[in-house]
Specification:
Elements: H1 2-7, H2 18-22, E1 36-37, H3 54-60, E2 65-73, E3 79-85, H4 92-102, E4 113-115, E5 118-120, E6 122-133, E7 136-143, H5 147-152, E8 156-157, E9 160-161, E10 186-194, E11 200-209, H6 215-223, E12 228-229, E13 231-233, E14 236-238, E15 240-248
Antiparallel strand pairs: 1-4, 2-3, 2-6, 4-5, 6-7, 8-13, 9-12, 10-11, 10-15, 13-14
Length: about 250
Protein backbone atom coordinates (compact mmCIF):
# COMPACT_ATOMS: atom_id res chain seq x y z
CA UNK A 1 0.00 0.00 0.00
CA UNK A 2 2.79 2.43 0.89
CA UNK A 3 4.43 2.07 -2.51
CA UNK A 4 1.11 2.50 -4.27
CA UNK A 5 0.12 5.53 -2.21
CA UNK A 6 3.29 7.40 -2.96
CA UNK A 7 3.41 6.37 -6.61
CA UNK A 8 0.04 8.08 -6.92
CA UNK A 9 1.73 11.34 -5.96
CA UNK A 10 3.10 11.53 -9.50
CA UNK A 11 -0.33 12.41 -10.90
CA UNK A 12 -1.71 14.50 -8.11
CA UNK A 13 -1.33 18.25 -8.21
CA UNK A 14 -0.97 21.25 -6.04
CA UNK A 15 0.15 21.43 -2.41
CA UNK A 16 2.10 23.36 0.16
CA UNK A 17 3.90 22.09 3.24
CA UNK A 18 5.66 24.67 5.36
CA UNK A 19 3.75 27.81 4.43
CA UNK A 20 0.33 26.28 5.03
CA UNK A 21 1.09 24.61 8.34
CA UNK A 22 3.37 27.18 9.96
CA UNK A 23 1.53 30.44 9.30
CA UNK A 24 -0.23 31.81 12.34
CA UNK A 25 -0.90 35.32 10.99
CA UNK A 26 -4.52 36.26 11.74
CA UNK A 27 -6.70 38.29 9.39
CA UNK A 28 -5.97 42.01 9.58
CA UNK A 29 -7.84 45.14 8.48
CA UNK A 30 -7.87 45.47 4.69
CA UNK A 31 -5.54 48.47 4.76
CA UNK A 32 -2.84 46.24 6.26
CA UNK A 33 -3.44 43.16 4.11
CA UNK A 34 -0.74 42.07 1.63
CA UNK A 35 -1.10 42.34 -2.13
CA UNK A 36 -1.61 38.58 -2.41
CA UNK A 37 -2.13 35.72 0.01
CA UNK A 38 -3.36 32.21 -0.78
CA UNK A 39 -5.83 30.28 1.31
CA UNK A 40 -3.79 28.60 4.05
CA UNK A 41 -4.51 25.86 6.57
CA UNK A 42 -3.52 27.91 9.59
CA UNK A 43 -3.48 26.54 13.12
CA UNK A 44 -5.81 26.42 16.11
CA UNK A 45 -8.49 23.97 17.24
CA UNK A 46 -10.65 24.44 14.12
CA UNK A 47 -7.79 24.09 11.63
CA UNK A 48 -8.23 20.97 9.50
CA UNK A 49 -4.77 19.64 10.30
CA UNK A 50 -5.65 19.61 14.02
CA UNK A 51 -9.04 17.94 13.67
CA UNK A 52 -8.23 14.71 11.86
CA UNK A 53 -7.70 11.96 14.43
CA UNK A 54 -4.60 10.08 13.32
CA UNK A 55 -4.54 7.64 16.23
CA UNK A 56 -8.21 6.95 15.72
CA UNK A 57 -7.48 6.07 12.10
CA UNK A 58 -4.83 3.58 13.19
CA UNK A 59 -7.24 1.98 15.65
CA UNK A 60 -9.74 1.53 12.79
CA UNK A 61 -7.09 -0.19 10.70
CA UNK A 62 -6.25 2.57 8.24
CA UNK A 63 -2.95 1.92 6.45
CA UNK A 64 -0.95 4.28 4.23
CA UNK A 65 -3.37 6.31 2.14
CA UNK A 66 -3.76 9.46 0.10
CA UNK A 67 -6.80 11.47 -0.93
CA UNK A 68 -7.58 14.75 -2.67
CA UNK A 69 -10.17 17.39 -1.86
CA UNK A 70 -11.21 20.89 -2.74
CA UNK A 71 -13.29 23.48 -0.94
CA UNK A 72 -14.52 27.02 -1.42
CA UNK A 73 -13.18 29.22 1.38
CA UNK A 74 -15.06 32.42 2.17
CA UNK A 75 -13.61 35.77 3.14
CA UNK A 76 -14.20 34.94 6.80
CA UNK A 77 -12.20 31.70 6.56
CA UNK A 78 -15.24 29.43 6.67
CA UNK A 79 -15.99 26.69 4.14
CA UNK A 80 -18.89 27.22 1.72
CA UNK A 81 -18.75 23.74 0.13
CA UNK A 82 -16.32 20.86 -0.22
CA UNK A 83 -15.68 17.84 -2.42
CA UNK A 84 -13.49 14.74 -1.96
CA UNK A 85 -12.09 12.59 -4.75
CA UNK A 86 -9.14 10.52 -6.02
CA UNK A 87 -8.51 8.38 -2.97
CA UNK A 88 -6.12 5.45 -3.04
CA UNK A 89 -7.61 1.97 -2.60
CA UNK A 90 -8.48 1.14 1.01
CA UNK A 91 -8.57 4.82 2.02
CA UNK A 92 -12.16 4.65 3.26
CA UNK A 93 -11.45 5.45 6.91
CA UNK A 94 -9.35 8.47 5.93
CA UNK A 95 -12.08 9.56 3.53
CA UNK A 96 -14.73 9.32 6.24
CA UNK A 97 -12.59 11.32 8.67
CA UNK A 98 -11.88 13.99 6.07
CA UNK A 99 -15.53 14.21 5.04
CA UNK A 100 -16.48 14.70 8.67
CA UNK A 101 -14.12 17.59 9.31
CA UNK A 102 -14.07 19.39 5.94
CA UNK A 103 -17.87 19.61 5.85
CA UNK A 104 -19.23 23.15 6.33
CA UNK A 105 -21.41 21.73 9.11
CA UNK A 106 -18.32 21.05 11.23
CA UNK A 107 -17.10 24.65 10.80
CA UNK A 108 -13.49 24.11 9.68
CA UNK A 109 -11.49 27.34 9.55
CA UNK A 110 -8.82 28.46 7.09
CA UNK A 111 -6.75 31.60 6.66
CA UNK A 112 -8.66 33.34 3.82
CA UNK A 113 -7.19 34.50 0.52
CA UNK A 114 -6.19 38.08 -0.30
CA UNK A 115 -6.02 39.75 -3.72
CA UNK A 116 -5.06 43.40 -4.21
CA UNK A 117 -5.15 44.01 -0.44
CA UNK A 118 -8.74 42.71 -0.17
CA UNK A 119 -10.14 39.48 1.21
CA UNK A 120 -11.68 37.26 -1.48
CA UNK A 121 -13.55 33.95 -1.73
CA UNK A 122 -11.26 31.36 -3.33
CA UNK A 123 -10.96 27.67 -4.21
CA UNK A 124 -8.57 25.62 -2.10
CA UNK A 125 -7.19 22.38 -3.53
CA UNK A 126 -5.64 20.01 -1.02
CA UNK A 127 -4.09 16.57 -0.70
CA UNK A 128 -4.09 14.57 2.54
CA UNK A 129 -1.47 11.88 3.06
CA UNK A 130 -1.56 9.39 5.92
CA UNK A 131 1.22 6.99 6.88
CA UNK A 132 1.89 4.72 9.81
CA UNK A 133 5.52 5.11 10.91
CA UNK A 134 6.76 2.94 13.79
CA UNK A 135 3.18 2.48 14.90
CA UNK A 136 2.46 6.22 14.99
CA UNK A 137 0.33 8.29 12.59
CA UNK A 138 2.00 10.70 10.21
CA UNK A 139 -0.60 13.04 8.73
CA UNK A 140 0.15 15.80 6.23
CA UNK A 141 -2.01 18.18 4.26
CA UNK A 142 -0.53 19.69 1.11
CA UNK A 143 -2.05 22.69 -0.64
CA UNK A 144 -2.16 23.26 -4.37
CA UNK A 145 1.04 21.62 -5.50
CA UNK A 146 2.25 19.94 -8.65
CA UNK A 147 3.34 16.30 -8.65
CA UNK A 148 7.06 16.99 -8.53
CA UNK A 149 6.60 19.69 -5.89
CA UNK A 150 4.53 17.30 -3.78
CA UNK A 151 7.06 14.52 -4.10
CA UNK A 152 9.95 16.78 -3.08
CA UNK A 153 7.90 18.60 -0.40
CA UNK A 154 9.01 22.03 -1.57
CA UNK A 155 7.62 25.22 -0.04
CA UNK A 156 5.29 25.86 -2.97
CA UNK A 157 1.65 26.93 -3.01
CA UNK A 158 -0.06 26.62 -6.37
CA UNK A 159 -2.39 29.23 -7.87
CA UNK A 160 -5.95 29.46 -6.56
CA UNK A 161 -8.91 30.78 -8.60
CA UNK A 162 -10.95 33.39 -6.76
CA UNK A 163 -14.34 35.08 -7.05
CA UNK A 164 -14.97 38.79 -7.62
CA UNK A 165 -12.48 41.66 -7.41
CA UNK A 166 -11.81 41.79 -11.20
CA UNK A 167 -11.94 38.00 -11.59
CA UNK A 168 -14.50 36.59 -14.01
CA UNK A 169 -14.49 33.22 -12.25
CA UNK A 170 -18.00 32.27 -11.08
CA UNK A 171 -17.54 28.60 -10.22
CA UNK A 172 -17.98 25.27 -11.99
CA UNK A 173 -20.93 24.75 -14.34
CA UNK A 174 -22.08 21.33 -15.50
CA UNK A 175 -22.22 21.02 -19.34
CA UNK A 176 -25.56 21.85 -20.99
CA UNK A 177 -28.15 19.10 -21.35
CA UNK A 178 -27.77 18.89 -25.13
CA UNK A 179 -24.15 17.80 -24.64
CA UNK A 180 -24.74 15.34 -21.78
CA UNK A 181 -28.04 13.57 -22.36
CA UNK A 182 -27.29 11.03 -19.62
CA UNK A 183 -25.67 12.81 -16.69
CA UNK A 184 -22.37 11.34 -15.55
CA UNK A 185 -19.45 12.60 -13.49
CA UNK A 186 -16.69 14.25 -15.50
CA UNK A 187 -13.05 15.15 -14.95
CA UNK A 188 -10.85 17.54 -16.92
CA UNK A 189 -7.17 18.32 -16.48
CA UNK A 190 -6.27 21.83 -17.61
CA UNK A 191 -2.74 22.94 -18.37
CA UNK A 192 -2.33 26.58 -17.31
CA UNK A 193 0.29 29.30 -17.44
CA UNK A 194 -0.22 31.95 -14.76
CA UNK A 195 2.02 34.93 -14.14
CA UNK A 196 3.25 36.26 -10.80
CA UNK A 197 0.27 38.63 -10.61
CA UNK A 198 -2.30 35.85 -10.98
CA UNK A 199 -3.18 36.55 -14.62
CA UNK A 200 -3.99 33.59 -16.87
CA UNK A 201 -1.50 33.58 -19.76
CA UNK A 202 -2.47 30.31 -21.42
CA UNK A 203 -4.85 27.38 -20.99
CA UNK A 204 -5.45 24.04 -22.72
CA UNK A 205 -7.21 20.73 -22.11
CA UNK A 206 -4.68 18.03 -21.16
CA UNK A 207 -7.21 15.24 -20.61
CA UNK A 208 -10.99 14.82 -20.50
CA UNK A 209 -13.03 11.91 -19.12
CA UNK A 210 -15.41 10.89 -20.48
CA UNK A 211 -14.62 12.49 -23.87
CA UNK A 212 -17.02 14.10 -26.34
CA UNK A 213 -19.55 15.22 -23.73
CA UNK A 214 -18.47 18.83 -23.46
CA UNK A 215 -16.54 18.67 -20.19
CA UNK A 216 -13.36 20.07 -21.74
CA UNK A 217 -15.12 23.01 -23.38
CA UNK A 218 -17.03 23.68 -20.18
CA UNK A 219 -13.85 23.75 -18.10
CA UNK A 220 -12.22 26.15 -20.56
CA UNK A 221 -15.27 28.41 -20.35
CA UNK A 222 -15.30 28.27 -16.55
CA UNK A 223 -11.70 29.52 -16.38
CA UNK A 224 -11.66 31.78 -19.44
CA UNK A 225 -11.96 35.02 -17.47
CA UNK A 226 -10.61 33.79 -14.15
CA UNK A 227 -7.91 35.44 -12.13
CA UNK A 228 -5.86 33.65 -9.52
CA UNK A 229 -4.07 34.15 -6.30
CA UNK A 230 -0.60 33.59 -7.79
CA UNK A 231 1.57 30.64 -6.91
CA UNK A 232 3.94 31.15 -3.99
CA UNK A 233 7.43 29.73 -3.66
CA UNK A 234 9.39 30.28 -0.45
CA UNK A 235 6.83 32.90 0.56
CA UNK A 236 7.00 34.93 -2.67
CA UNK A 237 4.54 35.12 -5.60
CA UNK A 238 5.93 33.49 -8.75
CA UNK A 239 4.90 32.63 -12.30
CA UNK A 240 4.06 28.98 -12.84
CA UNK A 241 2.85 26.30 -15.21
CA UNK A 242 0.46 23.85 -13.57
CA UNK A 243 -2.01 21.12 -14.40
CA UNK A 244 -5.24 21.82 -12.56
CA UNK A 245 -7.86 19.07 -12.12
CA UNK A 246 -11.50 20.08 -12.45
CA UNK A 247 -14.32 17.76 -11.40
CA UNK A 248 -17.98 17.87 -12.40
CA UNK A 249 -20.62 15.98 -10.45
CA UNK A 250 -23.73 14.80 -12.26
CA UNK A 251 -26.01 15.80 -9.39
CA UNK A 252 -24.72 19.39 -9.47
CA UNK A 253 -21.45 20.84 -8.28
Amino acid sequence: MRAFAFSLITWLSIADLALSQESTTPSTPEAQLPMYRPVLLGQGPNALINRIDGRGLISKGQKDALIMFMCAVRKDGGVEWSSIYRGTPDSNFLKQELQKWISPASNPRFIPAVYNHQLVDAIYYGTVTFRVVNGKPRLRIFSNQEADELEKEHDFVGPQPFFGNDSGFTGFHYPPAENVRVQVDGMVELGMKIDANGNLQGIKVVSEEPPFLGFGDTALADFKNAKFIPAFRDGRPVACEVTLPVFYKAAGF
